[in-house]
């Protein structure tokens, strides 16, 4: 009898193990397919970036012209070169140009160099910049990026994080007081945030720096740089005020309006009305029936905002002379510095791909309706 009773239990355990192993295999298969898809997307994006940054080979022609000019100027100052005949001078010039072109790899076909450059970029072998240098004088793209990263994280990382949570708090507050005078104020001011941040930056400089003279025009700290930590921190905070205000004006009203509308839509769902009818407090209804279903959207916005910090604000940083990644990217475009452009882009592409991949699993954790294997 005992053996007969144990047989169904053993069959049930076997079925549970098979079901679990099948679920694990589906998750692994989904993760592998997702990673492969994202990797192909990153490769395509990097390839297009290399082609666009090099302008289809136009930048290489500019580099070739620079080589020809520099070699010609160097040889003209050589008395031995000037003593040669016209034919010999031309041969010597062509030979020197060929040597310089070979040293920079310009003697090989364009597409071969493009795929090699893309391969190096994908492995984060970012190489040397063409014209840009770090403050220490290094031309390594990695050194340039690492040098510009802390100012961008300090200014835009801190300001965007504070603004994000402030916008959520205010939007949630306004959704509870729909139609109030404060709600109407934010709805009215929402179109103000459609202007770019650099536009507000110029006006803020004219008002607070040029007219009132209470805040600095640009830069990160005063010159000369303060010696002690306290004075340095105060100087840094004073220089951060105007850029932070520009970023805030660029986003706060429109984002609050968008989030407030988003919360209002979820607050009008039938299950929310049912929860209110059951006698639940407004805090419980808001926490469990409004905020919880919106968590995937909130987390997605937060994650994309965080990785968006990597791109910085190219024009705004240029307006305020802020030494961040955005200004470095703007300078790289001006100088046709392809390695710096591709270096910043490929890192952003990897950050975006990793974020999108992880968000699938985060959704499954915060929302029980989501299944990773689906």
Pick out its properties.
single chain; 374 residues; mainly alpha; MetI-like fold; 14 helices
| Sheet/helix structural class | mainly alpha
Spatial separation of the terminal alpha carbons: 43 Å
Outline, from the CA principal axes?
flat
- Which percent band covers the strand fraction? under 5%
Write the CATH fold name of one domain: MetI-like fold
Radius of gyration: 29 Å
How many individual β-strands?
A: 0
CATH architecture field of one domain? Orthogonal Bundle
| Helical fraction | over 70%
CATH hierarchy, class of one domain = Mainly Alpha
Task: Tally the helices.
Answer: 14
Q: What is the N-to-C order of secondary-structure elements (H for helix, E for strand)? A: HHHHHHHHHHHHHH
Structure characterization notes:
Helix 6 packs across helix 9, helix 6 runs parallel beside helix 14 (338-366) and helix 10 (270-277) packs antiparallel against helix 11 (282-308). This protein has a domain at 142-197 and 252-366: MetI-like fold (Orthogonal Bundle), CATH 1.10.3720. It starts with a helix and ends in an 8-residue tail after the last helix. It is mostly helical. It is built from 14 helices and no strands.
How is this fold's topology laid out?
Elements: H1 2-53, H2 58-76, H3 79-82, H4 86-103, H5 110-122, H6 141-176, H7 181-189, H8 197-211, H9 229-267, H10 270-277, H11 282-308, H12 314-319, H13 325-334, H14 338-366
Helix pairs in contact: 1-5, 1-14, 2-4, 6-9, 6-14, 8-9, 10-11, 11-14, 13-14
Task: Write a short abstract of this structure.
This protein has 374 residues and is an all-alpha fold. It has helices spanning 2-53, 58-76, 79-82, 86-103, 110-122, 141-176, 181-189, 197-211, 229-267, 270-277, 282-308, 314-319, 325-334, 338-366. It has a domain at 142-197 and 252-366: Orthogonal Bundle (MetI-like fold), CATH 1.10.3720.
């Amino acid at each position: 009898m005992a053996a007969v009773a144990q047989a169904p239990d053993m069959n049930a355990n076997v079925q549970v193990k098979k079901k679990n192993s099948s679920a694990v295999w589906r998750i692994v298969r989904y993760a592998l397919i997702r990673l492969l898809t994202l990797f192909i997307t990153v490769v395509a994006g990097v390839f297009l970036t290399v082609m666009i940054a090099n302008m289809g080979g136009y930048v290489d022609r500019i580099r070739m012209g620079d080589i020809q000019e520099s070699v010609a100027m160097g040889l003209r100052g050589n008395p031995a070169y000037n003593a040669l005949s016209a034919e010999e001078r031309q041969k010597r010039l062509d030979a020197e140009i060929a040597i310089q072109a070979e040293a920079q790899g310009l003697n090989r076909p364009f597409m071969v160099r493009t795929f090699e450059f893309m391969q190096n970029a994908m492995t984060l072998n970012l190489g040397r910049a063409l014209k840009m240098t770090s403050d220490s004088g290094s031309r390594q793209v990695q050194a340039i990026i690492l040098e510009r990263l802390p100012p961008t994280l300090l200014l835009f990382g801190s300001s965007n994080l504070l603004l994000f949570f402030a916008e959520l708090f205010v939007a949630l507050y306004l959704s509870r007081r729909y139609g109030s005078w404060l709600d109407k104020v934010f709805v009215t001011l929402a179109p103000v945030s459609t202007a770019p941040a650099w536009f507000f930056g110029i006006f803020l400089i004219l008002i607070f720096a040029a007219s009132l003279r209470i805040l600095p025009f640009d830069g990160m700290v005063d010159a000369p740089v303060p010696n002690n930590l306290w004075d340095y921190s105060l100087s840094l905070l004073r220089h951060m005020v105007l850029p932070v205000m520009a970023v805030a004006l660029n986003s706060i009203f429109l984002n609050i309006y968008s989030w407030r509308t988003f919360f209002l839509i979820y607050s009008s769902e039938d299950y929310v009305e049912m929860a209110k009818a059951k006698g639940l407090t407004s805090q419980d209804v808001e926490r469990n029936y409004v905020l919880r279903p919106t968590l995937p959207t909130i987390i997605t916005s937060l994650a994309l905002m965080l990785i968006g910090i990597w791109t910085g604000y190219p024009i705004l940083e240029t307006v305020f002379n802020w030494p961040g990644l955005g200004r470095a990217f703007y300078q790289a475009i001006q100088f046709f510095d392809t390695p710096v452009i591709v270096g910043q882009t490929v890192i952003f592409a990897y950050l975006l791909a990793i974020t999108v991949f992880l968000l699938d699993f985060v959704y499954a954790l915060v929302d029980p309706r989501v299944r990773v294997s689906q």
